Every structure is written in structure tokens, then in C-alpha cells.
Amino acid sequence: TSKAIDKLFSKESYDRRLRPHRQTGRLINVTIGMTVVSFGQIRERDMDFSLDIFFYQKWSDPRLKHSLKDPIILGGEFKKLVWLPDTFFLNIKTAKFHTVPSDNSKISIFEDGTVRYSTRLTLTAGCEMNLLDYPLDEQTCNLTILSYAFSTHEMDYIWDGGTKSAIDVINDAMNEFTLIGINTSKQVFRYVTGPWTHLEATFKFKRRLGYSIIQVYAPTILIVALSWLSFWISKEAAPARVALGITTVLTIVTLMGSFRAAVPKVSYVKAIDLF
């Protein structure tokens, strides 16, 4: 195995700076897949969501064909030896590679020259949310994947197993939301420099009502019910009636103000505002 690796990556036979099929002019087909380990926070105020994933890419590099029956498995520290697609996420705010206790990535090189690169990432991506029905809302968040340097004439992206089974989920538990659907799609966008393939993963979430019931609806209903006590207070006891009325109004205003502070400022009326 050591001799095969030395032969594959010798300077005379392999240059990682050049993409596969460059001499023949063929485009590279990069197959993409991911497994969601867990979902993090979905933050309305920052309009983003986070998730922890295993992300893998697979492509063919004829220069790395070998005669071994078993695939050559290399740790993440050897990825500098291999040409890798310049894949990136278009709407990412922050991304983290995991390196504890060691680099959480590996490269598998198969007999026919197929290369599979997998790594673990924690991503925070932008998500434009519609808060019209908040807090009875459903939100759709996307991850957009594409190449930075190569257009569709040189590199094409494909979802592994088609657009229905490219994403697996290990743990979909979240405190405030429920995952109700995942879709994948492929589109071609035309930029000034040419057409680029976009792969899009769409996650659909539905907000759980437990927090809103406990923090907003139940206290507000109780305060309104408490305000009705003023109808049973004697009309001669004006100070008591006024104090109760003012107290309940101020309490509701304070309660709703603190709840609205958790969401971004929008120019339309939300469901919670109507309530």
C-alpha cells in the first residue's frame, strides 16, 4: 500500500494543482451528499440557522487509478496531496472544521480512480424568514452549494442518489422547532462569467407552540381575566378600579414588548401583534 501511495502521488505522475480530465476537456461530475448530525439554533433576530453535518463529495480522477482491491484510506492530514473541488456554501455566515481529537475528515481512493472526500462541519447559514404568522409560523431555510472557480462547462454537481435521498438526518430534535421536510434541487444560474451549477438543500421547520403558550398566551389571558375583576369592585372604590386597570394594561404592554424584542423589526403586522 505504501508503494502504491508513493507511486500515485509522485511529482512525475500527479499534479494536485490541475483538475482531473483537464487534458481531455471533459467536465468533472462531483456527487454531493450529507448527513445531518444535529440542528442547532434557529434565530429569528439574526435570520440564520445552524447545523452539524457530515459532508461528502465524490468524483473521478483517472490519475489516481491503482491495482489494489481495497480502497486507499487517507486521514484528513493528507488531503493536501489530492486535488479537491473548490466547493463552497453560498449563504454561509460561519463554518467550523472539527479537529478534536484529530482532523474529522478522510479521503478514500478506489481502484477505478473514484475519490471520496468526507468531512465534518458545523455551519451557520443565513435564512430569510417570513414572520407574518409568528409564532404560528413555518420557516424554510436553504443551503446552496456550488463551485467558486469552475463553471458548468468544467464542473457539474449532482446530488447523490438523486434529489430525494441525498440527505440523511441522525438527530432532528430541537427545542423550539420541528423538522417537517427536506428537499433537494439543482439549478443553473447565469453570471457575467458564465453558467454555474447550484445545488440547493431546503429544510422546512414548524415552530412549536409550547414556549409561546407558557410565556405569552397563558399570562396574557390570565391578566385579561384578572382585569375583569374591576367589574365586581364597587363603583365608589374608584382608586382600586383605576389601579387594577392601569396595572393590567402596563403588564400586558411590558409582556408583549419583551416578547417582540426577541424578533427582528419588520414592516408588517405579525400574528402576535394582532393577538
From TrEMBL:
PROSITE patterns linked: NEUROTR_ION_CHANNEL
Domain Neurotransmitter-gated ion-channel ligand-binding: 3-208
MF (Gene Ontology): excitatory extracellular ligand-gated monoatomic ion channel activity; transmembrane signaling receptor activity
Localization, UniProt: Cell membrane; Membrane
Protein name: Uncharacterized protein
Family under the similarity heading: Belongs to the ligand-gated ion channel (TC 1.A.9) family.
TM region positions: 214-234, 240-263
Keywords: Cell membrane, Ion channel, Ion transport, Membrane, Signal, Transmembrane, Transmembrane helix, Transport
Membrane topology qualifier: Multi-pass membrane protein
Gene Ontology annotations for the cellular component aspect, listed alphabetically: plasma membrane; postsynapse
GO biological processes: chloride transmembrane transport
All residue ranges annotated as the Neurotransmitter-gated ion-channel transmembrane domain in the record: 216-274
InterPro entries per UniProt: GABAA/Glycine_rcpt, Neur_chan_lig-bd, Neur_chan_lig-bd_sf, Neur_channel, Neuro-gated_channel_TM_sf, Neuro_actylchol_rec, Neurotrans-gated_channel_TM, Neurotransmitter_ion_chnl_CS
PANTHER family hit by this protein: NEUROTRANSMITTER GATED ION CHANNEL
The keyword Transport is assigned to this record: yes
Signal sequence annotation: none
Origin: domain of life: Eukaryota
Species, as recorded: Nematostella vectensis
Main location (coarse class): membrane
Gene3D superfamilies according to UniProt: Neurotransmitter-gated ion-channel ligand-binding domain (2.70.170.10), Neurotransmitter-gated ion-channel transmembrane domain (1.20.58.390)
